[in-house]
Design goal:
The structure is a single chain. This protein is 50% helix and 12% strand. The chain has 18 helices and ten strands. It has three domains: 180 residues, Beta Polymerase, domain 2 (2-Layer Sandwich); 143 residues, Rossmann fold (3-Layer(aba) Sandwich), CATH 3.40.50.720; 77 residues, no CATH class. The protein is elongated, with a radius of gyration of 28 Å. It has a six-stranded parallel β-sheet. It has a four-stranded antiparallel β-sheet with strand order 2-3-1-4. By secondary structure, it is α/β, with parallel strands linked by helices. Helix 5 packs antiparallel against helix 14 and helix 6 runs antiparallel to helix 7.
Length: 467
């Protein structure tokens, strides 16, 4: 079974491309269903956030699974022949096998995020997994991968200072907003500002909580579903506002945070017509919630994902990240050891099955003799089974331990040769096949952007379960 991660992120594509290729919840669900209907993909989890769209999948063949995923991504994105510049090969990446699992671990740890170490991705990864699991789109392989990745993410947040050192994208955006507010006359930053949040999803909820804790002068929450806005507002002692009257809402605040899942901009220059007071707008959505003409207005400053990326406004401290990297390397190495050990599992099973067949054949031969009672035959069967199990136990346990060691020889083949077992070998694709699969020419691995399968691989590798 081949494990694949196929996707795009802020590391491989410009923000404008991510905005164009964003995948909403309904499209993500449709993508998963279509992949499983196609037959090539056996399991699928789609992770879609403001700075990544990734498909985690298993397939019987590498090339078949990769082609199916890329074709479905192109379909969901609505790309045709006229969109060659947005072809997956120009902005996507592929991780396979051990590298795919290592990538999942790094994502869970927050090390692949725009803000290094940010904690929000762990919840997003859990939600993506739970959604796929409830839809019966997850089997043993992805279940084990995500369970381990989520456990590692939790361990990192529990055993390191990454939570204190690494703010979320929301916090990073609000830090930039506070700087701008201070520049325009709000000497005390957020505590002097009247703020409003449009959107009550995960990002909007986090923005509301962060603003409430920062002690803003006043706080309003607007959402398409008014009831949801009222619930969120009540938790943080805020006020629910009308979603369909953004002109009025914007006129009452100094800071406006937009974080909806709308496919089109919700805030346009017309909503701010006649406004003269300074306004800071944080656009945390992809696709963007704020139209481009808003940033051109006098007195309006827009903080968006692109500005956060340019400013490198936040991230865990270097020493904290080094601690996280060390812990992650330990986990990946242990997972990889289990993955290597699992390569002999089918052969061990075949060996035990062959032994059982021999035992049953001999017992059947004895059963045809008439000089044994039923009790004697039963005791003989138990004895023979016990002897065979004891003979096989230590070698099969030991061969898994040996196979898990780095650089171990092919113990599976050795077992097949020694016992004349009939077990098909699984051919792994070579790294060069990644480019050939999509007919692109890899570029030097100095930058993940515009590369496919040639970006620097993450250290270590994974395994479906720890021993």
């Amino acid at each position: 079974m081949n494990l694949l991660v196929v996707g795009i992120s802020h590391r491989s594509a410009a923000v404008e491309t991510l905005e164009r290729l964003a995948v909403g919840p309904e499209a993500a669900a449709d993508l998963s269903r279509s992949l499983l209907r196609g037959g090539e993909v056996r399991e699928a989890v789609v992770l879609s956030t403001c700075n990544r769209v990734e498909v985690y999948a298993t397939s019987a063949t590498f090339h078949g699974g990769l082609s199916a995923i890329v074709d479905e991504l192109h379909r969901v994105w609505g790309l045709g022949d006229s969109d060659a510049e947005l072809d997956f090969a120009s902005c996507g990446y592929v991780r396979h096998g051990a590298d795919a699992a290592a990538h999942a671990f790094r994502v869970a740890a927050g090390l692949d995020s725009m803000v290094a170490g940010e904690p929000q991705i762990l919840g997003q990864l859990r939600d993506a997994y739970e959604t796929a699991r409830e839809a019966d789109q997850v089997g043993r392989h992805l279940h084990e991968l995500f369970q381990q990745a989520l456990r590692v993410g939790k361990r990192i947040h529990a055993e390191t200072d990454v939570d204190a050192a690494a703010p979320s994208v929301v916090t990073a955006a609000l830090e930039l907003a506070e700087r701008e507010l201070a520049r325009t006359g709000f000497a005390n930053g957020l505590t002097q500002a009247r703020a409003a949040v449009v959107g009550a999803g995960a990002m909007g909820s986090l923005a509301t909580a962060t603003l409430a804790r920062s002690g803003v002068k006043s706080l309003k929450v607007a959402n398409r579903d008014r009831e949801k806005a009222e619930r969120l507002a009540s938790v943080w002692d805020a006020e629910a506002a009308a979603y369909d009257d953004l002109t009025s809402l914007a006129a009452q605040v100094d800071l406006l945070v937009c974080a909806t899942s709308s496919p089109e901009p919700i805030l346009r220059a017309a909503h701010l017509a006649g406004r003269t007071a300074p306004l800071v707008v944080c656009d945390l959505a992809l696709p963007k919630d704020v139209a481009e003409d808003v940033a051109k207005l006098d007195g309006v400053h827009v903080v968006d994902i692109a500005e956060i990326q340019r400013a490198d406004a936040a991230g865990a401290a270097a020493d904290t990240l080094a601690e996280v990297e060390a812990l992650l390397a330990e986990e990946i190495a242990a997972y990889n050891e289990g993955l290597r050990a699992d390569t002999v599992t089918p052969t061990v099973a075949a060996l035990r099955s062959a032994a059982a067949d021999i035992v049953e054949a001999e017992l059947a031969r004895v059963a045809r003799r008439g000089d044994f009672t039923d009790d004697q035959r039963a005791e003989l069967a138990r004895t023979v089974h016990r002897v065979v199990q004891r003979l096989l136990h230590e070698p099969t346990v030991r061969v898994r331990e040996l196979a898990g060691q780095p650089g171990a020889p092919d113990y599976a083949r050795a077992l097949r040769d020694l016992f004349a077992l009939d077990a098909a070998a699984v051919a792994e694709p070579q790294s060069g096949d990644l480019a050939e699969a999509l007919k692109v020419n890899p570029v030097p691995a100095t930058d993940e952007r515009n590369t496919l399968g040639t970006a620097p691989q993450q250290p270590g590798a994974p395994s479906p379960r720890r021993p």
